[in-house]
Write a structure and sequence with these properties.
6-stranded mixed sheet; alpha/beta
């Protein structure tokens, strides 16, 4: 079953030098699976995720031949209809909890705000649901974390709080933008296990945005490789390390290898029709 269908998505920004296309004709579909999006910084990964939620503001402009989520046309949806979808049915874990969590609100206030405002729950019921969400992401002392401010949390715990916040409404689609980039290997594995369990147990669709090709190859089901706002290759994640496209091969060749040669890593050869 197709949960999200995107055809010819374009994100354009008006600048003094003329229009700049950050996303150029991206097309993909997503079922209840783990779809990875990889590429360099500036390749359009995050813009693609934000465009699905219609979070691009002027001077940015979103256009698409088709962008449908579970039968609802996202391009033609009103802002009120999008607000009803954001968080409740489509969640997004932002890249860094230091910048995504409000520094002057406790974790508990941030976790319960949506439940109280959107769902009309009382304080006690909202707190109980928030604590349950923190337990689901394996935070051992959720009552203490509820009273903490973001600066009092480690990077890994802050990331788990972000995931818990997005999972409280039990969305059908979760967009995770570099959710493990600031984490050490042990915590990274725990966060991935949490996401994997949610996809498997809840039947959720996941868009996993990352720079880490090896991680995506191990964790995702399918992969989109983006360059300069375009998808240059789509393949099964299990085949990612054997990809044939020159750009994907270039990214893979830039990865350091334990026990590999010590000479400088090769740079990307940006020649050929794909580099235009």
């Amino acid at each position: 079953m197709t949960l999200l269908d995107v055809q010819n998505l374009r994100v354009t920004f008006a600048t003094e030098a003329g229009p700049v296309e950050a996303v150029r004709g991206v097309s993909f579909s997503l079922g209840r699976e783990r779809l990875g999006i990889v590429g360099e910084s500036g390749s359009g990964k995050t813009m693609t995720g934000r465009a699905v939620l219609r979070l691009i503001r002027p001077p940015g402009r979103i256009e698409a031949d088709r962008m449908v989520f579970d039968g609802q046309n996202l391009i033609e949806a009103s802002e009120r209809e999008m607000r009803a979808l954001r968080g409740k049915r489509i969640g997004m874990v932002m890249q860094d909890p230091k910048y995504s969590l409000n520094p002057v609100m406790t974790v508990g206030d941030q976790l319960t705000e949506g439940l109280r405002r959107r769902d009309g729950l009382g304080r006690r019921d909202a707190e109980a649901k928030a604590i349950s969400a923190l337990e689901a992401v394996q935070i051992r002392d959720p009552a203490r974390v509820m009273e903490a401010y973001p600066h009092e949390l480690s990077g890994g715990m802050g990331q788990r709080v972000m995931i818990a916040m997005m999972l409280i409404p039990e969305p059908d689609l979760l967009i995770a933008d570099e959710p493990t980039s600031a984490l050490d290997v042990t915590v990274q594995a725990e966060v991935l296990a949490i996401l994997d369990r949610l996809v498997r147990d809840r039947g959720m669709g996941l868009i996993f945005i990352s720079h880490d090709l090896r991680l995506v190859a191990r964790f995702c089901d399918r992969v989109l490789v983006m360059y300069k706002g375009r998808v240059v290759e789509e393949l099964q994640a299990s085949n990612l390390l054997a990809a044939q496209h020159p750009y994907t091969r270039g990214l893979l060749n830039c990865l350091p290898r334990i026990g590999g040669p010590r000479e400088p890593l090769p740079g990307l050869d940006r020649t050929g029709a794909w580099a235009e």
